[in-house]
Amino acid sequence: MIKRIAALAALLPAVLGTTAGVASAHPGPHATPAVVTLTYDASNAGQWAGPIRQAVQNWNDAVHNVRLEPASSPGSADYVYEATSGWPQTTLGPIFPGGSGDVQLGQQAVDEGYDATRITAHETGHILGLPDDYSGPCSELMSGHGPGTSCTNAKPDAAEAAQVDRNYAAGASAMRPHHRQVVIDVWSGRVLTGSH
Questions:
Q1: Coil, strand, or helix at residue 114?
Q2: Residue 32: what pLDDT?
Q3: Residue 184's pLDDT band (boundaries 50, 70, 90)?
Q4: Exposure check for the chain: N or C terminus, fewer CB within 10 A?
Q5: What is the predicted pLDDT for the residue at 179?
Q6: pLDDT band for position 182 (50/70/90)?
Q7: Is 123 a catalytic residue?
Q8: C-alpha distances out from residue 109 to 51, 71, 79, 120, 166, Å
Q9: Could you tell me if 189 and 145 are in contact, meaning their C-beta atoms sit under 8 angstroms apart?
Q10: Which residue ranges are tagged as binding site for Zn(2+)?
Q11: CATH number of 36-195
């Protein structure tokens, strides 16, 4: 009996070592994915600098699989913010490192009374792969102009943040779309889209 216990005691570390090796080779569902860092250039955004900082912070606070940071040089950015006189429009992502996204922050929406930070956060949501849902409530960032000018919420809700995390769950090696679609957010109620 003592010999059997001694034999089992000798085998136990070998069995545990094998089991630990298998477990580490196949991470479970709670494994932390690599965070995708997207860089942006806001050098041509003018008066939108403050709303951009706040919108980026709101997204960085809400999501886990992607992080937005200023580019070290304008030419190295994955996407750009720029001030325009027209309607806001954005490249529909998800954009990945090495991408070429464009966020045009249109003054016409501000002139109609819409909140600049909400506009910026909403357009950034498109960069991260979220479509419009104009029929949604004010608490839903991608409802855009739907709730009217009194809505100033500039934070994504839990479902929107979860979708962005799913968009970037595979890390920077994820499949990228082969098309480039631009979403034109006409914040006065008309909706136009086009593909490029």
A1: coil
A2: 60
A3: low
A4: N
A5: 47
A6: low
A7: yes
A8: 14, 27, 21, 11, 30
A9: yes
A10: 122, 126, 132
A11: 3.40.390.10
Judged by average pLDDT, the poorest of 25-29, 70-74, 88-92, 158-162 is 25-29
Report the alpha-carbon distance of residue 55 to residue 71 in Å, rounded.
16
Tokens of 85: 């006189």
Distance between CA atoms of 96 and 152, rounded to whole angstroms?
28
Helix (H, G, I), strand (E, B), or coil: what is residue 192? strand
Question: What are the domain boundaries of the chain?
Answer: 36-195
Residues 6+ apart with CB under 8 A from 91: 79, 100, 101, 102, 103, 126, 127, 180, 181, 182, 183
The number of beta carbons lying within 10 Å of the beta carbon of residue 125 is: 26
DSSP single-letter state for residue 177? -
Q: What local confidence, expressed as pLDDT, does residue 180 receive?
A: 54
| Residue ranges at the known binding site | 115, 117, 122, 126, 132
Once rounded to an integer, what is the mean pLDDT over residues 95-112? 94
Q: What is the pTM of this model?
A: 0.76
- Round to whole Å and give the CA distance between 134 and 140: 9
183: confidence class by pLDDT, cuts 50, 70, 90: low
The DSSP secondary-structure symbol of 121 reads H
Which one from 82, 112, 123, 160 is the annotated catalytic residue? Answer: 123
